[in-house]
Amino acid sequence: MVITDELVAYLEKLGRIELDDEQRVKTKKDLQDILSYIDTLNELDTDNIEPLSHSFPIFNVFAEDEVKNGDMRDEVLKNAPESQDGCFKVHRTVE
Fold it and tell me: Which tens digits make up the pLDDT trace of 19-39?
């Protein structure tokens, strides 16, 4: 595929942007370079290559949920200035 001036103008319209002449030339060259690189990648033999979702072998490690501290409500409420019915008591902020 060849990047044409018409294609660059169409992409400008789609992107709702305006490029000056210098930017159009640079964009046209950059897009052509990208397509050339993709063509180079398409030449590679990938028939026996397994598809990857990640470049490193990363696996989720799940640990069992276990309670370590248990019920510490009374110890936590000792630090509260005021408590009521097993909860922190705070001043009313909204009337």
Answer: 999 999 999 999 999 999 999
DSSP conformation letters of 21-57: HHHHHHHHHHHHHHHHHHHHHHTS--TTPPP-S-SS-
Query: Could you tell me which residues are beta bridge partners of residue 84?
Result: 87
5-15 helix and 21-42 helix, angle to the nearest 10 degrees? 100
The DSSP secondary-structure symbol of 56 reads S
Reported pTM? 0.51
Question: Angle at the Cα of 56 (from 54 to 57), degrees rounded to 5?
Answer: 95
Task: Write the CATH number of the domain with boundaries 5-42.
Answer: 1.10.20
Question: Which residues are registered as beta bridge partners of 83?
Answer: 88
Residue ranges of the domains in the chain?
5-42
What one-letter code names the amino acid at 63?
A: A
Contact 77, 83 (CB under 8 A): yes
Q: What is the DSSP letter of 53?
A: S
